[in-house]
Amino acid sequence: MKIQTLAVILSCLLISVHGQQSDDFPVPASFQSEGIPRIKNDDVKHLFFEPSAIKSNLIWDVDRTARKLLVTDEKNAIYSVDSPLSAPRLALDGRVPSTLRVNPTSSVVAFNNDKEDPDNYALFLWDGKSEARKLSRFDGKDDSVDSFVWDRDGKSIFYTLNDYEAKTTKLCQSDLTASKCFAVELKGLWNVIDNNRGNILLKYWKSSSNQHIYLYSIGSGKLTPLSESGNATKAFFLDGKPLALSEDSPECGGGRCLISVDPRSGTKEIISLKNVRGHLGDLKPSPDGKSLLIQEAFDGIDSLWIGKLKSKSIVPVVPNFLNGSYVVWNTRWLSSSEVVFTVENIGQPAFIKSFDLKTKKTTVWTKPRLPEVLTDSVKPPETIRWKSFDSKEISGYIVKPAKIEKKSPVLVFIHGGPQVLDRPTFSSLDVRFATFLGLSIIHTNIRGSRGFGNDFMDADNGAKREDAVRDISSLLDWIEKQPDLDADNVFIRGESYGGFVALATGLKESSRIRAVIAEYPLVSIRNYLQQSWIDEFAKNEYGDPKDEILMKSLMSFRH
Fold first, then answer.
1. What is the pLDDT of residue 192?
2. Which of 33, 88, 541, 551 is most exposed, with minimal Cβ within 10 Å?
3. pLDDT band at 213 (very low <50, low <70, confident <90, very high)
4. Does residue 543 contact residue 463 with C-beta atoms inside 8 Å?
């Protein structure tokens, strides 16, 4: 197959072509093709199939009172799974929530959704019977309910009302009939995380590597910082104690730990995380506050285990119970002795399991579905590492066809964000590329990615933006040394910020790249930063748009 034809197919695979009558594969209206030979439908029709041929489920939340799950399905709406392996039942259509939380004492559901005003979330209540009812009322032009939590008695909801125009946040409470907002000044972007007996945990987000946790007391109106340095990404109450996960702070000895503060005395206590050796994905306290579910990853592959707080440390009491190589999403406690979670891997769509801590029994709640032609068609992902221009180690993973007759063409994928960790999750595109086109796909976690420490996450900030592009150049050097990869046939694909890096790499490495696929790319950092809704987070990441020297340098390195 000619490389030009391959490049067109790579692009067109992202677009639905069902229902076309022509013998030729159609060129989408948004594409301009030059020098590309005609492609016959018969040559490529096997690459496409109806989306319903793939089935996957993700957990929205659990209904503990009825012991059932609320999940996604093909339509991304809200479905109910009433028992293990029962068919998902459409519960609420036409609503794709950003967050969904079930009342801790009933089956009533709260969710936020931007159906009425795109990008601005309103808060809704749904009793499972009548239409969803809106709880939030907005005063500003750009208000959005970006976070909310139920009170533990299920009688009210705490939520943050973020005004993106004024760049301020209000902390509010709805008793499910009316709302009131507290007299606490919150400048910037804040999220509500948890609450317990009149104390509320809030996260102040300045950037991905600069987040802080605060404790707000409704009774006193006092806002107390739990973490004043480092980066605090998560917080929760465990047996009544407020705990914040902090990284790179002096209190943690420059590493990571849990910090607890007594709301009355202000005394701090440090909880060691010495038993967590991999990338800490999540910690979730059990409903009775006696146990912690730990999600820990090594080279992007997750493990799940149960710990307890003992002698100022998290001590394992149930070892890893996740059998197989999986990526885990949306863990929940179904009860204080049972956890439920979504798993997937590169060759298997997402499905849901639960694990009983007492019986040690694993139960499958939903099963994935995949067309037979795509089953077992790729090798397990391999972790790869390479040295960049400054000797910094960069990593990613490669997906290869099950059979490689000769050297394989390579598609390099660059994620957006950039504060994202690309992990070996299921991708029908990857499987199709490998199965039908013989491509090897490399997923990269270049500098700026999450999961490798704050220094790595900040290593592309401001004037260091070009260093991320150099990471891809170094990857091209690595590809040239691999005996089963065809360094003469390399394609670059990126989404959003990854599209920016892909385009910049294409200009910098035009002699070593066959084609670039940039999906909804960031094209101009200056123009992006001049948008009215841009906050301090973006300026910390990309730089001040008023810095002419910096803005010109970001333009020049792409040429």
1. 97
2. 33
3. very high
4. yes
Identify the residue with better confidence: 548 or 557. Answer: 548
- Tens-place pLDDT, residues 293-323: 999 988 788 999 999 999 899 999 999 999 8
pLDDT score at 559: 47
Residue-wise pLDDT for 140-162, tens only, equals 566 899 999 999 999 999 999 99
Strand spans (E) along 273-347: 279-285, 292-298, 301-310, 313-318, 327-335, 338-345
For β-strands 362-364 and 157-163, DSSP reports them as unpaired
pLDDT at 120: 85
d(C-alpha 104, C-alpha 335), whole Å:
11
Contacts of 474 (CB under 8 A, 6+ apart): 386, 387, 388, 389, 394
Using DSSP, state whether 350 is helix, strand or coil: strand
Distance CA 260, CA 27 (A): 59
Determine the 3-state secondary structure of 470 from DSSP.
helix
Dig out the tokens for 29 from the structure.
């209206």
Q: What is the pLDDT at residue 526?
A: 67
Could you give the residue range(s) of every CATH 3.40.50.1820 domain in the chain?
372-556
Residue 131: partners with Cβ closer than 8 Å, 6 or more residues away: none
Name the least confident of 205-214, 268-277, 324-333.
205-214
Largest CA distance in the chain: 77
Residue 251 backbone class (left: φ over 0; alpha: ψ -120 to 50; beta: rest): alpha
Q: How far apart are CA 500 and CA 146, in angstroms?
A: 27
- CA 390 from centre of chain: 28
For tokens 């994905």, the residue is 281
- The CATH architecture of the domain made up of 372-556 is 3-Layer(aba) Sandwich (3.40)
| b/e burial code for range 160-181 (CB count within 10 A of at least 16 → b) | bbbbbeeebbbbbbbeeeebee
How would DSSP label each residue in 179-237?
EEE-S--EESEEEEEEEETTEEEEEEEEETTEEEEEEEETTT--EEES-SSSEEEEEEE
The least confident of 177-181, 234-238, 460-464, 470-474 is 460-464
Closest by CA to 371, choosing from 48, 6, 14, is 48
Long-range contacts at 348-353 (CB < 8 A, ≥ 24 apart)? 348/426, 349/54, 349/55, 349/56, 349/426, 350/56, 350/57, 350/58, 350/425, 350/426, 351/56, 351/57, 352/57, 352/58, 352/59, 352/69, 352/71, 352/81
- Mean of the per-residue pLDDT values of the chain: 85
Tell me if 461 sits within 8 A of 449, measured CB to CB.
Answer: no
Rounded Cα–Cα distance for residues 337 and 358 (Å): 7
Strand, coil or helix: 510: coil
Which residues lie across from 162 on neighbouring strands? 144, 169
